[in-house]
């Protein structure tokens, strides 16, 4: 079995992780006491990926919740689903990060680090063969951004051969108005860029728009946003948790969807995405799922994929769907929309299938896109970052916690380089740019050492 350890860091990470645990428990037929009440043995066949069996047959999630202040974790512990977690897996301190990346990385987070790593090592020792880690966090927060980066840095040192992915929530002015969020987001991405294998980027602004325009929720709250994100996580991880015709795992996703090590930021999405009142008025089929899958209305990041090009993408289907029909329509879609795919990377769409549909639906699909237009999101954050750093606003709070002033310039340059790489691969059509010989052209033979011409 290939287990995955979930790490929920910060207030947003813990709240989203708790909703994800609820969704996964519903998929596998687990109630809030950890008791199995499902109807199919398939629900238990690969349950060890995210759960382990405790005393009296109770199933316990492989999840660790971490925060630099106790308030949010205490509310989760006292909730109806709080008793499913192992008590030792609530890791927190007393003070908090004050929305300061430096506090989470250098001072308050460093004091909590050893306790967090002990909890991680304890969970890893209980695994038969762990395949990797997934971290849920908000890059705009002091704990999610600062302590999350510190934690991933140490995990990479302790487990260098395991896959690390993140579900990273990007800041948005529609949901939060913390003025230093661009600082935290850019500094966090600067650290995580070289550490993680891939990251799912989720924009609060996009989640807000989907809830309001598609799901018809007048005033979406953070709970609505977290539930929507948990649905996407549940769909993308379905092939890890259930048997299917074509399955995937963390390493397969990384190998298939990351053509260059630094360009590993994905756009997730789910279909169908409709209000409860509208679900009974539509019939789902494979062509409709695929057409809606590539629509901007279904994606969780505020960027238009038509403004860039897909490097790679993946589609995960749940339910009884025809694999032949899926492959045929996916090929047709890529052919019709070829201008939105990189010419130098053929067959760049991966498909996976899970036979078990989500509750209440006959079929569904999840989408993962590695599109160059995601650079627009980083450009927007970088513009806000440069605006406040130009006047050195609030910088003294970060320097007082141990962050060097040169780190701000290094982070700015690193993100600028990443944006330039996306733009380069979007406009490149000649594969010889990447050092490969052109078709029909042989590379000149290397000269033998010690032979005179």
TrEMBL record:
InterPro entries xrefs: Beta-tubulin_BS (IPR013838), Tubulin (IPR000217), Tubulin/FtsZ_2-layer-sand-dom (IPR018316), Tubulin_FtsZ_GTPase (IPR003008)
Annotated protein name in UniProt: Tubulin beta chain
Function: Tubulin is the major constituent of microtubules, a cylinder consisting of laterally associated linear protofilaments composed of alpha- and beta-tubulin heterodimers. Microtubules grow by the addition of GTP-tubulin dimers to the microtubule end, where a stabilizing cap forms. Below the cap, tubulin dimers are in GDP-bound state, owing to GTPase activity of alpha-tubulin.
Keyword terms: Cytoplasm, Cytoskeleton, GTP-binding, Magnesium, Metal-binding, Microtubule, Nucleotide-binding
Residue ranges constituting the Tubulin/FtsZ 2-layer sandwich domain according to the UniProt record: 246-383
Taxonomic path: Eukaryota, Metazoa, Ecdysozoa, Arthropoda, Hexapoda
Compartments (UniProt record): Cytoplasm, Cytoskeleton
GO biological process terms on file: microtubule-based process
Sequence segments annotated as region (Disordered): 433-453
Organism: Allacma fusca
Chain ranges of the Tubulin/FtsZ GTPase domain: 47-244
GO cellular component: microtubule
CDD domains: beta_tubulin
Top-level taxon of origin: Eukaryota
Required cofactor(s): Mg(2+)
Pfam families referenced in this protein's UniProt entry, alphabetically: Tubulin (PF00091), Tubulin_C (PF03953)
Subunit structure: Dimer of alpha and beta chains. A typical microtubule is a hollow water-filled tube with an outer diameter of 25 nm and an inner diameter of 15 nM. Alpha-beta heterodimers associate head-to-tail to form protofilaments running lengthwise along the microtubule wall with the beta-tubulin subunit facing the microtubule plus end conferring a structural polarity. Microtubules usually have 13 protofilaments but different protofilament numbers can be found in some organisms and specialized cells.
Molecular function as annotated in GO: GTP binding; metal ion binding
Similarity comment: family membership: Belongs to the tubulin family.
């Amino acid at each position: 079995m290939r287990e995955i350890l979930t790490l929920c860091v910060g207030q947003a990470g813990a709240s989203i992780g708790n909703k994800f645990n609820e969704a996964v428990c519903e998929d596998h037929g687990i109630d809030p006491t950890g008791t199995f009440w499902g109807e199919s043995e398939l629900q238990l066949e690969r349950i060890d990926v995210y759960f382990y069996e405790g005393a009296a047959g109770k199933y316990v999630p492989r999840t660790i919740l971490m925060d630099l202040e106790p308030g949010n974790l205490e509310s989760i512990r006292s909730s109806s689903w709080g008793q499913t977690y192992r008590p030792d897996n609530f890791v927190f301190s007393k003070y908090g990060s004050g929305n300061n990346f430096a506090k989470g990385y250098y001072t308050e987070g460093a004091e909590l680090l050893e306790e967090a790593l002990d909890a991680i090592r304890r969970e890893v020792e209980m695994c038969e063969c762990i395949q990797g880690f997934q971290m849920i966090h908000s890059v705009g927060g002091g704990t999610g951004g600062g302590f999350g980066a510190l934690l991933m840095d140490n995990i990479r040192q302790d487990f260098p051969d395991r896959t690390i992915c993140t579900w990273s929530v990007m800041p948005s002015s529609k949901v939060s108005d913390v003025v230093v969020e661009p600082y935290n987001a850019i500094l966090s991405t600067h650290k995580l860029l070289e550490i993680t294998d891939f990251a799912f980027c989720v924009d609060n602004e996009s989640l807000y728009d989907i809830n309001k325009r598609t799901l018809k929720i007048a005033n979406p709250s953070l709970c609505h946003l977290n539930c929507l994100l948990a649905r996407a996580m549940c769909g993308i991880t379905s092939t890890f948790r259930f048997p299917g015709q074509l399955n995937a795992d963390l390493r397969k996703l990384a190998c298939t969807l990351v053509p260059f090590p630094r360009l590993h930021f994905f756009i997730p999405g789910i279909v169908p995405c409709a209000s409860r009142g509208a679900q009974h008025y539509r019939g789902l089929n494979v062509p409709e799922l695929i057409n809606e899958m590539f629509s901007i209305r279904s994606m969780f990041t505020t960027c238009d994929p038509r403004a860039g090009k897909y490097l790679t993408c993946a589609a995960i289907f749940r339910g009884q769907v025809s694999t032949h029909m899926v492959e045929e329509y996916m090929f047709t879609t890529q052919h019709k929309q070829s201008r939105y795919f990189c010419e130098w990377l053929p067959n760049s769409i991966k498909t996976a299938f899970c036979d078990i549909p989500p509750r209440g639906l006959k079929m569904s699909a999840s989408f993962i896109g590695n599109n160059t237009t995601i650079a627009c999101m980083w450009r927007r954050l970088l513009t806000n970052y440069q605006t406040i750093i130009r006047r050195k606003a609030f910088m003294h709070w970060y320097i007082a916690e141990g962050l060097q002033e040169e780190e701000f310039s290094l982070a700015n340059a690193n993100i600028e380089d990443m944006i330039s790489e996306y733009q380069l691969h979007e406009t490149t059509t000649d594969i010889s740019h990447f050092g490969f010989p052109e078709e029909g052209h042989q590379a000149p033979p290397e000269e033998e050492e010690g032979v005179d011409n």
